[in-house]
Amino acid sequence: MAKDKILSAKLKQQEFKTKSTQLKTQKIAQLLEPQFQQSVEIDDERPLLKISNFKEYLPEENVQNIINLKLKQGPYKLSVTPQTTYLAGESGHIAAFNWRHKQLECEFDVKEKCYDIISIAQRNFAVAQKSSIYIYDPKGVEVHKIRECKQATKLEYLPYHFLLAALNQNGQLTYQDITQGKIISTYRTTPSSLCLKQNNNNAILGIGDQMGVVRMYAPNTGTSLTSMLCHKGGVMSMTFSRDGNHLITTGSEGTIKVWDLRTQKLQSQVAVNATNLALSDKGILAAGRGTDVVMWKNCLIGDLKTPYLRYKASSMICDIDFIKHEDYLAMSTFDSYEQTVVPESGEPFFDTYEQPELQNKKQRLETNVRQLVEKLPPESISLQSHRIGTIDRTSKMIIEKEQKRQIEEQASKKIKKQKKKMRGRNKIGKREKLKELERDQKQQVKWQEMLSDALRVKRAEKEKKKFETKLLDRLEQMSSKEFIRVVS
Amino acid sequence: MGKLNKEQRLEKQLAKKVEKQDAYQQVKLQEIPEDDFNVANLIQTLEDQGQQIDSVKTQYLRVHEKARIVQEPETQAERDLQERKVAATVMKQDIKKWLPIVKKNRESERIDFTKQRNVQISKISDTSNALLNNHLGVKLQNAMEEVEKVEQKQELNGQSNQQKSNLQFYNDLKMKKISSIKSKIYKQIKKKKGNKEKLKLMAQLTPAERRKEIEKLRLSRAKERITLRHSTKNKYVSQLLRFGGDKKSLKQQQSFLNNLKHQLLAKAQLNELEDGEFDEENFREQAITQLEQELLDIERREKEKQNNFGFLDKQKKQDLQQSKSIAQKLLTMLKSGNDDAIQIDESENQEQNSDENYEPNENGDKDKSKNNVENNEFNGRANFVNETKQLTETQKKKIDAKTSLSNYLNQEPEKQQQQNKIEKQLTVQEEKKQLIEGLNIKNIKQKYEKQVNQKLTNQDLKKLQSDPDELLQQNLANFNLVLDEDENENAFIDEKIKDMEEELPPEPANTKGWGSWAGFGIKEKKPLTQEQILQNKIKKIREVQKKRQDAKLDNVIISEKRDVKFAKYLVPKLPSEFANSSQFDQLHTLPLGPEWNSLTSHSALTQPQIITKAGVVINPVKIPQQINKLV
């Protein structure tokens, strides 16, 4: 119990309030539940349903949004928002169009190899090209050129921190603040990286390795926070659940695995050879393998045996993503962009507080300002982010040491005022001579230490040799004496 | 004798030198003829006659002074140079004698180093002045003149031939020089000409032949790239050795293989869908025709030229032979009508593909095959369908992975038995093994074993294959993957041990005399051996391992480094009001912001303790009476 009576009373009050709020939220959730939640029933005899079978029963709005665009320039990468899709071909074809209204926003050719594309704040988008990373307007005008991170192949954007993370071909990871244009941290990760994905709950980045290891990174520390051996082969791709509690990975040996990140243990697995993964907010898992896309419904519970749906694309699949708050799956192939219906995949409740793309122009401007004001600092990214404001549980010794070190660093940074000495001692030439002397003395001490070690070893060897020679001499004498005796 | 020989040699050398010196003198004398005419003498004579020639005299003196400088002795270097020149001329004179002979020998088939001599006829003509008056003498002279004329003609012809041969010789030399010129433009022009000719040839060929030639070029290029020493570490070669000659990346290749599999599955499904009344005779005819076509294909494939890679050709041959033998067997069976033999051969293939269920059937695969053998009914339809069906990628991989892993697992129990027999003598290597076993690799392996429980043989794979070239590449890729898988575990464990070693405190350096008593009669401590140091280290690592968060997790490393930058968001000390940290944390269970709560609950939670309305007058604070009395 607390020492003060006032505090104990305060705590009691808060407990009461928490319980009351929980009840209220439950009631609101019941009221907001959709009454007609459509879903596809599954027969046990024919588990793999094809979308073409139930296309006739869909409403017209959904059928209109089933898209199949045929493109020519190389394998495509995509990033999808609730309103627009951004496409980047490998040979340099970049396009953005509104899939809801079927309007082209911009289209241009860079004439350079493009590796990845991603949508960032204020409807801009960033493209990882061969020379450097470029940021474009919604109308396709070049705004920035980031020269610092060269040869970036994979991009990820942290929306609440306004950070653009880029992974290099050599495994160098850079965090860049978009608002200030400042690089926050760069460090080297695994050189043989295959995929990059962020945990939406945590803002921690996961990097899949060719050695079958998934490593988690944050901008504060250069080393990996956790590393987990997931597969026998390389990790082809991975996704995090919306809670941040589950991780799903595919390996090149031909398995999909579901991991619980709270216990760091394997939950369930299937033998499917997949190359791309995507997970919707409601928990539908889509796995692309060749031209097929296979989907499971309750994968996080562990029901991976019976697949839910199957979709057949025109050519090999390169990238997959679900559209947020909608029942659509977007995928880019070698020569097409396709979009299909996946019933019961999207989360129907969207938060109006943070959904700028369904707003007016004025509202959007206001939200932009508000988001900038509420920007989270990059130092707050860690695995213990739920413990902000709580008591530090490390031992007192370590904390005191850190404080001491900080004080010493601050003291060392301060420039000491040198005393003025008379009679020409304070000349610049003399002062620098003294400095040189100090440097030489420090070096001399080092060399002397090195020499003393070396000399000690040499002397020991010499003594050993002397001892051996003495022994040999004695042995020779003994042998000669014995020989004489035998002869006599 | 040896001394004498030396002396003789010296004498010879000296004689040679002397001869050379004589030769110089002769040459010098030849080059500098003496002039009798002298200007000085002329002036003297003119002065004696009494003529006035002062101006001429002064000019002469000036010139004489200048010339005196020329007459001065030369330096050593200049002298040597002149001597060398002279030596070169002497040598040229010697060589001139031999040059025509050498030239002749180059052109002729035989070699003769004899000098040319005039024929003896000339001697006769000299001595035959007395014979001129005689008839015989006149006749002889005439005959001799005729002979001489013929010889002169022959000589002239020979000279013209020699000139031609000489010209050819120099022309060849010139062409050699031109060919050795390494200018870029010359090579470019040559290359363009060659390319144009090649293209013309290629245009004339049929597409099949053209393809072959392109493959040849590609193979030669690949061979160059592999054989060159500096480029063995090249990306192209490393990828070729690993994934079998495809330039695609790992991810693209995987999707490509999946696509192939998808197409094959579609073919199999089409065959399934063609249901109807089953006719044995029609089916047999179809099967026979298809098998014959296959045999023809195999023969054609065998005739094709081999690749340059030896290991690829061997496997290709084996595969083709096996498929050929199977097809021939089936043909004989079908034609004769013995159905039992087919079932025995293909009873192993009876297992159904489990691709549709996406899970391997762990049990019951054996029973099916047995049942089919027992029931001697005709199952040709099913067998034929199975032939067309392709194994999935996962199964193919598992076969390769399984064989390697089963070999590995079979070895382990034998090792354990041996260990039980031998008394436990803990060496350093065994200690390491135990440490790794402590991390429960066995559990990981058992998990993997369950995946691979489905039993398939390599024969299935080879029977059902369509293109041995593609399958070979796939197998190579899979084989490399299996090799890497074993490395993954070991690499991860090494990483984990390294991470634990970093946590250990640094060991003090072993200096003699420190940390031990000194004096007379005290024994010296022996320094620890490397084995003992390792054993101590292992003990320490085990202690560290128990304290860590990931002690029980085999496949996880959780770093225990403190995040200093994040520490500013934490409270360093417990406030004095609270008894426990849990009590303090209770305040943070509920978020207060509007993002996580409804507006009504947010207003309720953030309600102040005292509410004052606008316009209410707030009086100043008064001093209480108890204190006021004291004051």
TrEMBL record, chain A:
WD repeat locations: 228-269
Full protein name: BING4 C-terminal domain-containing protein
A single GO cellular-component term on record: small-subunit processome
Biased composition (Basic residues): 413-428
BP GO annotations: maturation of SSU-rRNA from tricistronic rRNA transcript (SSU-rRNA, 5.8S rRNA, LSU-rRNA)
Top-level taxonomic group: Eukaryota
Cell location: Nucleus, Nucleolus
Keyword check for Nucleus: yes
Keywords recorded for this protein, A-Z: Nucleus, Repeat, WD repeat
Xref: Pfam families: BING4CT (PF08149), WD40 (PF00400)
Organism name: Paramecium octaurelia
Residues in BING4 C-terminal domain copies: 307-385
Keyword Repeat (UniProt): yes
Region (Disordered): 411-435
From TrEMBL, chain B:
Chain intervals for the UniProt region annotation (Disordered): 345-397
UniProt biased composition (Acidic residues): 345-359
Keyword Nucleus among UniProt keywords: yes
Record key words, sorted: Nucleus, Phosphoprotein
Domain of life: Eukaryota
Main subcellular location: nucleus
GO cellular component, one term: small-subunit processome
Any one GO BP annotation for this protein: rRNA processing
Signal sequence segment: none
InterPro entries tied to this protein: SSU_processome_Utp14
Cellular compartments annotated: Nucleus, Nucleolus
Protein name per Swiss-Prot or TrEMBL: U3 small nucleolar RNA-associated protein 14
Organism: Paramecium octaurelia
